[in-house]
Amino acid sequence: MKKIVVFLFLSICSLSLSAQINTDRVLAIGRNALYFEDYVLSIQYFNQVIRSKPWLAEPYFYRAVAKINLDDYSGAEEDCSMCLERNPFLVQAYFARGIARQSQENLNGAIDDYTKGLEFRPTDRSMLVNKAVAYIQKKEFDHAEEVFAALMKSHANNSMNYLLRGAMYTEKGDTLRALADYDKAVEMDPYYAPAYGNRAILRYQQNNFDGALADLNEAVRLNNRESGYYINRGLVRYHLNDLRGAMADYDQVIEIDSRNLIARFNRGLLRFQVGDNNRAIEDFDVVIAQEPDNYMAYYNRALLHYETADYEGAINDFNVVLNEYPNFLPGYYSRAEAKRKMGDNAGAERDNWIAYEREQELKKNQQSNRAGTHSTADTDQDEEDKTREQSDTNINKFNRLVIYDKETEQKNKYQSEIRGRVQDRNVRVDLEPQFILTYYEKPELVKKIIYYDKTIEDFNQQMILDRILLITNQEAALTEGQIAVHFSSIDNYSAKIAQEPDKAVHYFGRAIDYMLVQDFAEAIKDYDKTIELDPTFIMAYFNRAIVRYKQLEYTMSQTSANEIGSMMNLNVGRNQQQSASSDPTSTALKDNKRSYEHEMIIRDYDLVLRQNPGFVYAYFNRGNMRCAQRDFRAAIQDYNDAIEHDPEFAEAYFNRGLARLSLGDASRGIADLSKAGELGIINAYSIIKRMTSN
Known about the structure:
With 694 residues, this protein is mostly helical. It has a domain at 452-559 and 586-692: Tetratricopeptide repeat domain (Serine Threonine Protein Phosphatase 5, Tetratricopeptide repeat, Alpha Horseshoe), CATH 1.25.40. It has 33 helices and four strands. The strands form two sheets. Strands 1-2 form a two-stranded parallel ribbon. It has a two-stranded antiparallel ribbon with strand order 3-4. The chain is globular, with a radius of gyration of 30 Å. Residues 1-19, 371-383, 419-428 and 559-582 have low confidence and may be disordered.
């Protein structure tokens, strides 16, 4: 690792023409990387600025943001402190340090930071919310209510405020006020699934199972990819004696996530109850494979092995349980029966005698010390309860359905406000992103599509570059090792260019490397040179358009120097609208720059399609540009052309559907989304449900 860092240091320094790095440029490239969520790479750039100019505050702040997104909260806290030592007026650094401290359970420190930040920005919603959550975590509900009062006054029309306060009242035990807040949240935003999901939990706790079922039905209708809703609905249906419905819900969870252990365990229990023993064993096999210390799963599987006459398998599982729980009397009696079935009468009698002796011993201990250790009798008081929390390891509750821990439940309610991309909590109605020629892509859990183009295939077969190019719209951030590789590659291409300055492919290869390390300015220069040397190099036009758009997107997000916190994707993300400048002249200049850049990008796609009319990804990307310009009719024509050349182009159907919806053409828009869902874009179904809701 040290060698990689040293090598990376030398590589970055080699990008500068002077011994002293251009810190403004390196800082800008680092912010590019941070904006596009390439956190490891961004940290390396900020390191260089800090080494060169350690008195600057901003690089410490930006590095802290990257570390928060990598869950390095201790490092983020330290960087924020370094930042504030240099500039105590950088408000977002207080916010970021508060998040880092809150994530480390330093709640008093987090509250101090939010309080300081609110001195500068008294109505900042994110800091108010996080401060309220910190008080809730401390169980200081009165202080939390005071913060919520200020929050409601400043942001009266935000339904999330009521949802969060409802969660606080639920934790406080004030169910009437909690229900009132949940009702208000649903009234204000009837298309937000978590509002129904949270209210369903409260209704379940009040034994209002019919009301909970209605809420969970609505939550699932609005977001059919959230496994928690199905798990909770399965639990409610179980209480309503709808075993078939509960089983169907657990089936759905496992279809979404085959490794979901709560669903697997609960489905195994239900299958056991209805006599589907072999398939119940399969479910417990999966649970035990992932959790080798889940002794309740072992015990249930042992009983199932006994039912299916696999007495040896049953005894093996009983052995595992009794080694861990030597006072679990039902285990001895059950193992005795299995041994008797195998003809081991002596072993069976021995187990029965051990069970009898330990039962007598437990009774004596219970009589002498009622406050002693937990025994089988201790469970009598809650015998009617049909559930246990996931972390509850009391073996006597082996046959109860599993629910989320209360601690986990509370974390789910508040965690998204403490950190994470707020706009990603629910399915975003966003276009499928543009395609790009690169070396890496994100692995996809559901959609398994291989993108192909003959031009790219022919180029790869020539083995001109060291790596295989692929076309994707799911770019992956670089690992630390890959970062080092591409800085080295830049040096290698620079050496080749020095030897063969008129060879276009060397510039193209280096342009891709610059693009991957988020140095857009240098990437564009190399794409320009590639095209100058070879005007038929359509892949250079294609990627130049993409990099120009990335550069434009980043530039437009930086509305003013005061909005240094725009990198904080904890409350302001890439896809959220930034506040517009109040300066009309500045706004006009930005509009002119945007129009000019859009025209240059469109021109590159035009040049690609003039040389290769079958390059469907250029139609698609140009359609996205038209949508960005709100020219939806022209965008639809581009998506039409893409679909004409590739009738299975799922992303084109999806984006055409959204474009048609934007024009009010609901029927054809929904038809396109339906086709996109059929071809693998599952978010399409959530949008369809929103659009068809009454």
